[in-house]
Design a protein that fits this description.
Porin; signal
Amino acid sequence: MKRFFLLSMLLAIAGVAAAQRDTALFKRIVPDSGRLHMNMDAVYNRPFIQAGKLPATLGGYVEANSAYFSENGVSEGLSFQLPRLTLFVASTIRRRIKFLSEIELEEGGREINIEFASVDVELDPLLNLRGGIIMNPIGAFNQNHDGPKWEFISRPMAATTIIPATWSTVGFGVFGKYAQDNWVWAYEAYLSNGFDDKIINNNQNRTWMPAAKANAERFEESFNGAPLVTAKGAVRHRRFGEIGVSWMGGAYNKYREDGIDLDQKRRVDFLALDYNNRLAKWNTAITGEWVWAFIDVPPTYTQQYGRRQQGGFIDLVQPVIQQAMLGWNQASVNIALRGEYADYNVGRFTETGGNIYDQVTAIVPGISFRPSGQTVLRANYRYEWHRDLLGNPAKKIAGFQFGISTYF
C-alpha cells in the first residue's frame, strides 16, 4: 500500500508537470547557465515547476533503457528496464531557509528510496548549515548523478561498486562557496551515520561496499555509535574547469556494546579526485574521477577480501552537430567515449608474491541526440573484461544499450 501511494503521488505530480504547457498557473524554473556551477550545486541545479503561489517547486527525471548483452558469445536476448523514476520537491521555507527532497523508485518500483531530504540554513555564502538525509560528497558522481546529464546508460563502475552508488545517510554539516573573478572555491564537511560490517560480511564473499546500502537502519541510528566523516574541497576556473578532492572515513564494525569492548575499531576510508571541464575551442566535455578505498579487514579473513580497492572513469563527449533539428531549436548530436576500471583487491598473495586480480575494465563508445539540454536519447556499445582473483583469462561481456532519460 505504501508503494502504491508513493507511485500514485509521483504519477500525479508528473501529470501536473505536463499540464504546465497549457496553463499560466505553472512556471518552469530553469537553472541559470551563465553562472559557474559546481558539482556541489547539482542538488539545486535542476529544472523545477512552480505552480502558482504553491510554496513548493516540483521536478524529477525518468530513465528507460533496453539492452542486448552476450557473455563469451552466449546471450540471453533483448531486455527492457525502467531503472529509476525520481521526484524532486523543493521549498523556500523562509528567506535563506530551504528544503529539498529526492525520492527515487528503482527497478520498476521494487525499491523506494529517499536519497536526499535536507534543510539548508544560509548564514553566509561561506557558512551554511545542512541537516537531514544528505548525499555524502565523496567524488563527483555521487552528487551529480542525474541520468539526463550523462551520455552513458550505465553508471560508472567505480562510482557504484567502490563508492556505493548515490550513497546517502542521515547527518549534519556545513558548506560554503567563495567566488572572485573567474574563480570559485567551495567546501563541504559532514558528520553522519556510516557503514556497517556487511561490507565484508555479505553473500559476495568479498569486500563489497554496495552491501552497506541494504542497511536501512542507518537512517534511524548509527551501527556502532561512531560518526562517518566526509569532507570535500573543490576549486573551479571558468577556463580550466573544476577539480575536487574528497575524503570519507570512519569505523564500520561494532567494536563496543553496552560498555564492553568486542573488537578493535576497524576503519574504512575513501579518497577521491574528480575533474570536469568543457574546452571552449571545441566544446568538448571532459569528466573524470578516481577513488581509492582502504579497508581494515580482520586478519582472520582470507586474502580474497580486499584490503585496498581503486578505480575510476574518464568520459569524453564531443558535439558534432548543434543546430535546429526536427522542430527543436537547440538540438545536438554528440559522440562519446568512456573508459573505466575497477580493482576490488589491490595487492599480492602472501604465499607466492603474485598479483591479486579481481578486476574489471570496460570501454564504452556511444552516440546521443539531445532535442534540448534536459532530454537525451542515447545508444552505447559496452565491452567489459572481467578477471577473477587468480588472474585467469578474462571473461568478456559485450552488448548494446539504447535508452532515453529526461527531466520532467
